[in-house]
Design a protein that fits this description.
heterodimer, A: 317 residues, mainly alpha, two-stranded antiparallel ribbon, globular, B: Rossmann fold, six-stranded mixed β-sheet, four-stranded antiparallel β-sheet, 10 strands
Chain lengths: 317, 248
């Protein structure tokens, strides 16, 4: 336990140092522009797994939480010219509150009904934003980047590093949940909610907490997107593609362990970025859908399930 | 309110009724169960046994009446809080946490139990889980995935998991259904040994020898009403009970 924690934090420190170093050494901005998107999907997928993987409540409303993160940032920029750190923290707060509200309203539903309710949520919020002039309404809003801060020479590189920090934060929180009794409680209620409840697990409270933490992290991961694109409109901020991509990345990676969504997001995110520059960004979805079907049929427990099966098989042979 | 009786009941059910639409599943049930009592609950299929258990454990809320446990009104309380007060149950069709090992199933109970503070570290809780499994006779299966257990092992695992919550009242809902004769004896001995302590046990069962051997008192339900309650031999010889079971 202790030893694995040391290893984890050491790994996190090395990861951050490496990310920082690349921003100092590589002049070209494009790798960071693409890398930002991949890191963002790591944050979203890991956060999604808390509710969708550990608790088994498949949230189709990732785009709702993402868009709320984007628009919290937009609002703060427009109203107060708030700095990036404040935007992210505020987005986490609003996302957490939204998660709490959504949880109260929907977590008594199970299976597909919960998923449908979360889709409806995204539509409701998107409609609200579309009709809110102050944050740009349907036409969207242009944003001005403030001057970039010290060790970074461009804003995109800074955002890239900020997103790397968010990756570490999201993974650390998710890892903590997985190793705590909350993780065990979520796993129990995913297996059998009635049995979990009768065994003393406060299922509703755990689900609410999972929904809040997951929502807060997704919104936090979405907040820097406003400055990344220097533009926000409801159509792109609340795009259903976020939900589908995140779902696919988590399931393809495997949701039993936090490393699953990390791997899934890196593999699929890189593939998407590669396809977007080589063929067309439209083919993304086709590939995503194809891979999802492939994995659901051939490796329902994702890449980590596949790897552990191969390792066990190898041990026996 | 009535003053507490000299030997206060552990569980007290008062004028309890439950309907599903127009169907009356429980009709004005009233019964008291003492601390450490071994209580048999019988009745034909559809007589309301499991509905009564669900009202006690919190899976269902009754339409009328109250459930008191250790002097506290728990009629509207969620199941997990009832578990913390000391009500544990097994299920008619076993409901293990399938993605976990046997030991992990028990760890869920110990991680969230009201008496969690008694076991400071995870290692202590693990030891406690292992000692329960040893008592139940499942220690050799601790690291086995629950998906691979046999029927009798699943039943035992459910009892072990229920014991791990630190219960004062254990409800066994047909823990012997579908078991062979020797397995029935095995589970029955187990239940008898568990009930020897401060734990009251409500046993729902169709196997009459088991009920007769186990129970200090037996209650028979038919169509949601109590038709007989008392010593096992008394209840068995009651003509209404025989009629309910055998028909006329």
């Amino acid at each position: 336990m202790q030893r694995s924690s040391i290893a984890f934090w050491l790994g996190a420190a090395i990861f951050l140092a490496a990310m920082l170093l690349t921003t100092q050494m590589i002049r070209n901005e494009y790798p960071f522009f693409a890398g930002y998107v991949i890191l963002q999907f790591v944050v979203l997928s890991v956060a999604w797994t808390i509710l969708g993987g550990y608790a088994g409540y498949v949230n189709f409303g990732t785009n709702a939480f993402f868009g709320v993160g984007v628009y919290t940032a937009v609002l703060l920029i427009k109203a107060f010219e708030a700095p990036l750190g404040v935007q992210i923290l505020a987005a986490a707060g609003v996302g957490g509150l939204l998660g709490f509200g959504v949880g109260l309203l929907t977590l008594r539903m199970r299976g597909i009904f919960f998923s449908i309710a979360t889709i409806a949520l995204a539509i409701i919020i998107e409609t609200t934003i579309t009709n809110w002039r102050f944050v740009g309404g349907a036409a969207g809003i242009q944003l001005q980047r403030p001057p970039v801060m010290a060790p970074f020479d461009t804003y995109v590189k800074m955002l890239f590093f900020v997103q790397a920090l968010l990756v570490v934060a999201a993974v650390a929180i998710t890892r903590f949940i997985q190793n705590s009794r909350m993780g065990r409680g979520l796993q129990a209620l995913r297996d059998d909610e009635l049995a979990a409840e009768c065994t003393g697990v406060p299922t509703l409270r755990l689900k609410l907490l999972a929904c809040m933490i997951s929502g807060a992290l997704i919104s936090a991961g979405g907040a820097p997107a406003a400055m990344y694109l220097q533009f926000a409109n409801p159509d792109s901020a609340f795009n259903l593609n976020y939900s589908i991509s995140v779902l696919a990345m988590s399931l393809i990676g495997g949701t039993a362990h936090w490393i699953g969504p990390v791997i899934g997001a890196i593999v699929l995110g890189s593939t998407q970025q590669f396809l977007a520059v080589t063929i067309s960004s439209e083919i993304n979805l086709l590939v995503l859908g194809f891979m999802l079907v492939l994995f659901v049929v051939a490796a329902p427990k994702g890449i980590i399930g596949l790897v552990s099966r191969l390792m066990h098989g190898g041990g026996r042979a | 309110m009535t003053a507490a009786a000299p030997e206060a009941a552990l569980l007290r059910i008062d004028a309890l009724s439950k309907n599903f639409g127009g169907f009356v599943a429980l009709d004005n049930i009233g019964v008291e169960i003492r601390k450490g009592e071994r209580f048999g609950l019988i009745g034909p299929n559809g007589s309301g046994k499991t509905t009564l258990v669900n009202c006690i454990s919190g899976a269902l809320r009754p339409n009328k009446g109250t459930v008191l446990f250790a002097g506290e009104d728990i009629t509207q309380m969620p199941s997990n809080q009832r578990s913390h007060l000391g009500i544990a149950r097994s299920f008619q069709i076993p409901r293990p946490f399938r993605s976990m090992t046997v030991l992990e199933n028990l760890m869920v109970a110990l991680d969230f139990a009201a008496h969690r503070h008694l076991f400071e570290t995870a290692a202590h809780r693990r030891d406690e889980a292992m000692s329960i499994l040893t008592r139940i006779g499942l220690a050799s299966k601790a690291m086995v995935a629950t998906a691979t257990l046999t029927q009798v092992e699943l039943r035992k695992m459910e009892l072990a998991r229920a014991m791990a919550t630190g219960p004062k009242l254990l409800i066994s809902d047909e823990a012997m259904a579908g078991l062979s004769t020797s397995e029935v004896d095995e589970v029955l001995d187990l239940l008898m040994s568990l009930g020897g302590e401060d734990i009251a046990i409500i046993m729902i069962e169709h196997i009459m020898q088991a009920v007769m051997r186990f129970s200090e008192r037996v209650m028979c339900l038919d169509a949601g009403r109590i038709i007989a309650i008392g010593a096992p031999t008394e209840v068995m010889s009651n003509p209404r009970v025989q009629e309910a079971y055998l028909g006329t």
